[in-house]
Amino acid sequence: MKCSNIVTQMQMLLLSTYFLFSPERRTANMAASGGRTVGSFLWKCGNCCFNFNTVSSNLTRQVLSRQLCVSAVLHRKNLAAAGPEKFSEEFIKKQVEEFNIGKRHLANMMGEDPETFTQGDINRSIAYLFPSGLFDKKAKPLMKDTFTKALAVEKHQDRLRGKDLFTQDAKQISLVGSRWLLKEELEELLVETISEHDYARFIQLMERLLSLPYCSVEEDFVQRYRRQLEIQSSKQQVQPLQYDQHGVAYSTGDGRRKTAMGTVLLRDSGSGSISINGTNYVHYFPVLQDREQLMFPLHFMEVLGRFDMQCSVSGGGHSSQAGALRLAISRAMLSFLSEGQVETMRQAGLLTPDPRIKERKKPGQEGARRKFTWKKR
Amino acid sequence: TCLSGTSKNACQSEQHLGQYYTVPASHFHTVFPHGLPPRYQQQVKTFNEGCVMVRQPALELISHLKRADYINPTLRYLLYGVKGSGKTMSLCHAVHYCSTQGWLVLHIPDAHLWVKNCKELLPSSYHASRFDQPIQASNWLRNFRTTNEHFLSKIKLRQRYVWTKRESTEEGRPLGELVDMGVSRVKSSSDVVGAVLKELRLQAGGTEGGFRLAVAVDGVNGLWGRTTLKKEDKSPVAPEELTLVHNLRKMINNDWCGGAVIATLSQTGSLYAPSSAYLPQELLGEEGFDSMDPFIPVPVSLYSEKEFESCYLYYLDRHWLQHPHSQTEEGKKELIFLSNRNPSVLERLCAFL
Q1: Neighbours of A132 (CB within 10 A)
Q2: pLDDT at B245 > cutoff 60
Q3: Which family does the UniProt entry place this protein in (chain B) (predicted)?
Q4: d(Cα A176, Cα A284) in Å, to the nearest integer?
């Protein structure tokens, strides 16, 4: 079919839908009351395939009379709108014929048989061609799946309550080590774009589902939307222990903090003596805070008096040197510790290098953040 | 372990190592008017009593003092060690022993005080090129008077000293009069100090009414270093040009007998010395080392385990450690780590716990 043909037929169909729908609705509304509708006169116009067999001929005269008085009323009220309201018989006949032609065209378009094209077929084809508000996104029920699952869980709970088997401590879904799908992943899964608001609502609904005690019923559904978290500490490289001549275990570690670099040689079965760059640490770090930084990894793992340390450090100031040594000590200690302890160290933040460095000075300002003194004039 | 009942220093021996002994309150003002470290003085005031730990260096000193014969020229003992390891405290311990034994104690609290921060420098009347320090000298004389009250009347002068045209002290007068004069006449106090030292030097080993003389100098390395003082034409003053220093050097020379010289090195007050220096050669310098040579070095180390234990228990006993965690084993380990058994560091640490 050519485009122009379709367009003209659409236009015709538009006209006819006006006539189709409005009479339908009005017939539905007023059939009970036995009202005469404007559209029922179309039946009068002849061989339409309306299934309005209910409307009998006895209405016709009434309709006509009604229609006449209507038009008279209208004529009295609104002289300007005189045209379409005056429905003469030929006009009606012409409209009906046009409607039928349109119907046949529609059937051709849909690829169906024009002869047996019922009103239901017309409805379906029009709904297909002109998507109405019922199929709009805003009219769809929001997250129907999740909501139905929540309702199902609640139903299950009620059933159990009815049977007096309801207990608070039912088997819970284990959520440890997994996280909700990210927005991008969810979009990928559902093959449609989701706004942030929708994503937030989705998470909210899932949390609500999880808050119900018997959510384990829908465990599979929930797990489909969760991803496992990888254990970070498995990425840490732990060097093996080295043994020197006397059989004493030792290990090295190095750390950096803000232009200070430090290396540490940690020896086992010592007395807790520490020497930094050849001098005692009490003399190298007179400030208590720096010594506390050195103490932190050992104290955390409760191995204070066990190791002997030989450190060398350069660059930076005293605080950054202390921080660098702390990182170096924690890294050197890794080879002496077990997996679980490594994980606790990582969570304590002992193994993360501090990323803060001196911020760049920008032109037009005195420092990184400080602006020049503002002078009014 | 912490408190031993013996206040008698003579009875202290190695069994008492690590234990505290109490200095009677009356002794504090007489024996130590100016000698103790300021933090220790605060601690004494807080605890209302003075407890000194018996430690190895002090015991060694005391045993030497007991055994040495006083016919030969004086022995010189030098206490040296890392900063804050307890040199001054050991010195005070020895001084206390000496005073209880009836010696005459010449205690110079800090020789560095004489070579820096001096407001007034008078040209000396006795010697043209030297400089006087009236304030420091008079202060010291006053403290000396409190320390050795009972000696002042006993010792008689052997020489006549002329101070000014009108003032002079005759032979045979008691030393106390000399000291009083020095305290009142501030201008000539430095010369008085010189005179006192000379007299004591002469009379120390004497058989008639002889007494033992203990010269205790803290921060002896200040005598041979540089000074921060300047003359009026902004040229630096050498230590030899100060009367007090000159006289003190003469005391430390071992050309007299009948006593002992106990000295400590101190980096804290020293001028132009790096903070990591603690060995005698570094702090004394060439000149000082030559003049002190020969001497008996006494190293003062950090707390041993036993000593640390006893100090910790002492603080616990006095309820100085308020934090509940400090009373546990772990807290103790933390203290050991953070202070590395350095006495002064430990004391500062416990001060705010």
Answers
A1: 9
A2: yes
A3: Belongs to the mitochondrion-specific ribosomal protein mS29 family.
A4: 45
What tokens appear for B182 in the block? 């020095």
Of B333, B334, B345, the CB nearest to A282: B345
Distance CA A265, CA A169 (A): 52
Return the top range by mean pLDDT from A166-180, B217-231, B302-316. B302-316
Rg of the Cα trace of chain B?
Answer: 21
For residue A36, pLDDT over 60 is answered with no
- Which residue does chain A place closest to B339, by CA atoms? A282
Most confident range (mean pLDDT) of A40-44, A235-239, B40-44 is: B40-44
Using CA atoms, how far apart are residues B334 and B328, in angstroms rounded to an integer? 10
Instruction: State the average pLDDT for chain B.
Output: 78
pLDDT tier at A324, thresholds 50, 70, 90: very high
**CB within 8 Å: A299 and B342:** no
**Rounded Cα–Cα distance for residues A44 and A216 (Å):** 64
**A-contacting residues in B 311-340 (Cβ below 8 Å):** 330, 333-334, 336-340
Give the number of other CB atoms < 10 A from CB of residue B143. Answer: 17
Residue-wise pLDDT for B280-289, tens only, equals 777 777 787 8
d(CA A212, CA A371): 55
CB contact at 8 A, A141 and A134: no
Looking at chain A, the number of H-run helices and the number of E-run strands are: 13, 8
Q: Which residue of A has its CA nearest to B348?
A: A288
ipTM of the complex: 0.77
Which amino acid belongs to residue B111?
A: A
Least Cα distance to B219 among B35, B32, B30 occurs for B35
Q: How far apart are the first and last CA of chain B?
A: 22
> What residues are paired with A256 via a beta bridge?
A261
Of B275, B276, B333, the CB nearest to A304: B333
**Which two three-digit tokens encode residue A170?**
């039912």
Confidence label for A325 from pLDDT (cuts 50, 70 and 90): very high
- Distance between CA B9 and CA A192 in Å, rounded? 93
Cβ atoms of B268 and B109 closer than 8 Å: no
Report the C-alpha gap between A181 and A226 in whole angstroms. Answer: 5
Q: Where are the alpha helices (DSSP H) in B21-167?
A: 25-31, 38-47, 56-67, 87-100, 134-147, 149-152
Distance CA A56, CA A36 (A): 11
Q: Is the separation of the CB atoms in B90 and B348 below 8 Å?
A: no
- Environment class of A272 (CB within 10 Å of its CB; exposed 0-12, middle 13-18, buried 19+): middle
Please say if the pLDDT value at position A369 is more than 80: yes
Q: How many Cβ atoms from other residues are within 10 Å of residue B23's Cβ?
A: 21
Q: Of B292, B289, B308, B306, whose CA–CA distance to B347 is shortest?
A: B308
Going by C-beta distance under 8 Å and a sequence separation of 6 or more, which residues neighbour residue A26? A35, A37, A38, A39
What is the token pair recorded at B100?
């209880």
Listed residue (B300, B305, B298, B310) closest to B340, CA to CA: B305
Instruction: Determine contact, residues A323/A259, Cβ cutoff 8 Å.
Output: no
Query: Are A282 and B276 inside 8 Å of each other by CB?
Result: no
% of chain A with per-residue pLDDT over 70: 68
Res. B217 pLDDT band, cuts 50 70 90: confident
The CB-side HSE value for A183 (13 A sphere, CA atoms) comes to 9
Choice between B279 and B299, residue whose per-residue pLDDT is larger: B299
| pLDDT number for residue B345 | 83
The chain A residue lying nearest B82, using CA atoms, is: A283
- Are B78 and B220 in contact by the 8 Å Cβ rule? The answer is yes
